[in-house]
Amino acid sequence: MSRPVILLIEDDEDVTLAARMLLRKLDADFVHLPHPQLFDAWQRQRQADIVLLDLNYSPGAIDGAEGLAMLARLRALPRPPQVFALTAYADVPLAVAALKQGASDFITKPWQNDKLLQTVASALRALQTASPSNHAADDELLGQAPAMRTLRALIASVAPTDANVLILGENGVGKELVARAIHRASPRRHGPFQSVDMGAVPESTFDSELFGHRKGAFTDARADRAGRFQSAAGGTLFLDEIGNLPLANQARLLTALERCQITPLGADRPEALDVRVLSATNLPEIQLHDPQCFRRDLLFRLNTIVLRVPPLRERREDIPLLARHYLRHYAEQYRKPLRELSEAAQQGLQAHDWPGNVRALRHACERAVILAQGERYQAADFDLAAIPAMETAMASPAGGLKLEEQERQTIRQALEQSAGNISRAAKLLGLSRAALYRRMDKHGLQA
């Protein structure tokens, strides 16, 4: 599997060296260009996934015009990279201009190492979950299964409104694709789409990250910084993995949503919000209603509309369509010959449970394209045995019961012994509360 490419366009050698040393910790290739003029020749050979873009190059320039022009070129590419604007001048209007033109974030120099590393690492994680063609509308949310047709119809209904939407689904089903589809079909489509992995935001910097801060608000606040809410003004803010947010931070988020305003750290007065909030989580619905895990008042604020994205095993008829789409994509990317699926390969793909959902299928297709040697793709090319398929269909050697039914009975017994107390039942089973909730949701059990 090819490594993602981080491209730094920066004319300062010292800044370049600092970035290279810091970002080499990440599983990505680091490339440097000292000026935007060199980009066209470079991109004929490679494609950037993430771009760190300086905004000024000419001596004495501080208006960011050169960088903004390069940003526009990057956003016009057939496969636009994520762009993070860099500048040594703490100018909030310039930051907002970059964000409105499509930059994912704005970072002032000198940066905080932890902050830059966290920002780029989060962008790399997002690349792993996104569709390889997620910038083309007709490549998103593929599938003709009834559940997918229903989901697309719901998106078409809710997108024109400003209602908050909670997107539920397992890891790898494409929750961010749903959020982007809503944004794209909404009146806010010309505004920014900001995605935040809530599980990756440190509790200590939560307020600064989401609400922004003023220069001098704390020791390292060397310049004003727009938070995620300000960056998404006029557009959509997508709060991914909202279920991972600690209760204390849930209260802060609720206050902002209830008042429709935020107060940046160090600011004298609040700022009104003009943003639509979409959120997503892979937590089972039953766990979201546990007040020890998630605030009920925040849940009611977020789930005006609930969209459920089906796992791949519940729409097996879509697997051949998805597989052919990804096989074609990676064949073009790696300049490999186009091959058809053998009947055995198609049957194997459809019989597989795909615990990693569409993301896992995509990775399996990439592997097949790279390693296949025959005229047609065979089941072995996808290495399905590496992730045991249909585990729950295996018979128990002791009693002849399926493992799935045994698990269900064991959980039910633990719940009965603990009189419905989730913490006690989890302790009896040797599970965390979250793991128990997931299994209860899987088997349709209630406390």
Biggest sheet, in brief?
5 strands, parallel
Mean pLDDT: 84
Strand content: 5-15%
Relative helix content: 40-55%
Rg on CA atoms, Å: 24 Å
The coarse overall form would be globular
Helix-strand blueprint:
Elements: E1 5-9, H1 13-23, E2 29-33, H2 39-43, E3 50-54, H3 65-75, E4 82-87, H4 92-100, E5 105-108, H5 113-129, H6 146-158, E6 165-168, H7 175-184, E7 193-197, H8 206-211, H9 228-231, E8 236-240, H10 247-259, E9 261-262, E10 271-272, E11 276-281, H11 285-288, H12 296-302, E12 305-308, H13 319-333, E13 340-341, H14 343-351, H15 357-371, E14 376-377, H16 403-417, H17 422-429, H18 433-443
Parallel strand pairs: 1-2, 1-3, 3-4, 4-5, 6-11, 6-12, 7-8, 8-11, 13-14
Antiparallel strand pairs: 9-10
Helix pairs in contact: 13-15, 16-17, 17-18
How would you describe this structure to a colleague?
The chain has 447 residues and is α/β, with parallel strands linked by helices. It has 18 helices and 14 strands. It has helices at 13-23, 39-43, 65-75, 92-100, 113-129, 146-158, 175-184, 206-211, 228-231, 247-259, 285-288, 296-302, 319-333, 343-351, 357-371, 403-417, 422-429, 433-443, and strands spanning 5-9, 29-33, 50-54, 82-87, 105-108, 165-168, 193-197, 236-240, 261-262, 271-272, 276-281, 305-308, 340-341, 376-377. The chain has a five-stranded parallel sheet with strand order 2-1-3-4-5, with helices on both faces. A five-stranded parallel sheet has the order 7-8-11-6-12. α13 packs across α15 (357-371), α16 (403-417) packs across α17 and α17 (422-429) packs across α18 (433-443). 34% of the residues are buried.
